[in-house]
Amino acid sequence: MNHQKLLEELHKMQSTHWIWNNSLFTACQNNHLTIDDYRYFFSQYFCYSKNFTRYLCALMANCENDFLRSLLSENLWEEGGGCEPEKRHAQLFRNFLGVLGIQDPDNINYESYSQVFAQQYFLASSNHDPLYSSAFLSLGTEGIVARMYTIFVEGLKKVGLSDSELKFFYLHMECDDEHAETLEKIVLSYGHRNDWENVCKKALNDALDLRANFFEMIWERLLQSKSSVISNRITQKKSLFKDAISVISRQSQGEHLYANEDLTQNISFSVERLFNQCDVLDPRTNQIPPGKTTEKHRHAHETYMYILNGNGYIEIDGEQISFEAGDSLFVPRWSFHQTANTGEEVLRVLAITDFHFTKYFPGNTPESYRSKT
């Protein structure tokens, strides 16, 4: 059995696992997470991170070979900060949480799924034979740290954190490949077993599935927390009446929201917001000069459009629809659309969106769909 070749195949499985396409990574890479999102995520991740030395100790306790235990002890020594316990990796993560504004990391209120994630990691390290546990912690854990933390670092820098504040991640990106190699030596030491390949594959997938599902739960929680801004107001029967403008006269001017002119693409239009105090609705007026168009774009909010004056057409996902004053149109969420003025007067459109609701969701900031930012 060529174990080195099989190990390369396992690394390929690792690099193509669905974890790399999970929702949290995608949001991080697309700069859809705020500093508050990262604060919540890493506060929950600490439940796993602070217990990592326990996972190594569990494997060490089950490993009958004293030489292999000595290799593990080196990993533990580095995780523990060597001769400087104050520089142990768990403490460096505490320092990072402090940068995020979490002043008392040891009293974080962990979600049940965060506790389950950490507990399942411990059980995988302690309740299985050393081959499974070492493959779980090497191929499925330490071996992905450099790539995974690179994603986190790039996202965190986009929300304003500096390299010096990301010391925890840079340290692991440098040393965890070596830690993975140490654990892989333990994996290879069991190469005489007939079930070696199957056990390694199962351990690898179990570890990656476990972490990927945890990330998906984090993502779902972030989405729920964003929508709760409005749902809480509804369930608590709170009104915005004292803060909102209830009536606006026909002569009142709206708030200038956006304008763009790019004659090379025949684009010229402007947008005014009529009310900014609504919980959900975001009514606007669009003005398009004769012969010009808006940008072709799409977004999370849906739009009801009423043609105040003028005529033209709108293209929605490739379908062109003509309109004139008095017509109503509907643009579904995430549909590519573009409006054109084919008349001889300024086209004026009343557009009512639910932007004040969808703005809480990643990927629907104005910068994500406007060509001029």
Nearest-integer average pLDDT: 90
* H/E series: HHHHHHHHHHHEEEEEEEEEHH
Count of distinct strands = 9
**Percent helix:** 40-55%
List the total number of helices: 13
What integer value in Å does the Rg equal?
27 Å
What does the overall shape look like?
Answer: elongated
Quaternary: single chain
> Termini separation (Å)?
58 Å
CATH superfamily of the largest domain: Heme oxygenase-like
Strand order of the largest sheet: 1-2-3-9-4-7
Characterize the main sheet: 6 strands, antiparallel
CATH architecture of the largest domain: Up-down Bundle
Q: Briefly note the structural class of the backbone.
A: alpha+beta
CATH top level assignment of the largest domain: Mainly Alpha
Please tell me the total number of domains: 2
Query: What fraction of the residues are assigned to beta strands by DSSP?
Result: 15-25%
Poorly predicted residue ranges? none
CATH topology of the largest domain: Heme Oxygenase, Chain A
Question: Features of this protein?
Answer:
alpha+beta; 9 strands; six-stranded antiparallel sheet; three-stranded antiparallel sheet; 2 domains; Jelly Rolls; 373 residues; Heme Oxygenase, Chain A; elongated
SSE topology:
Layout: H1 3-15, H2 23-29, H3 35-49, H4 52-62, H5 66-79, H6 89-99, H7 112-126, H8 130-138, H9 145-158, H10 167-189, H11 196-235, E1 255-262, E2 267-273, E3 282-288, E4 303-309, E5 311-316, E6 319-324, E7 328-331, E8 337-341, E9 347-353, H12 355-358, H13 366-369
Antiparallel strand pairs: 1-2, 2-3, 3-9, 4-7, 4-9, 5-6, 5-8
Helix pairs in contact: 1-11, 3-6, 3-7, 4-5, 4-7, 4-8, 5-10, 7-11, 8-10, 8-11, 9-10
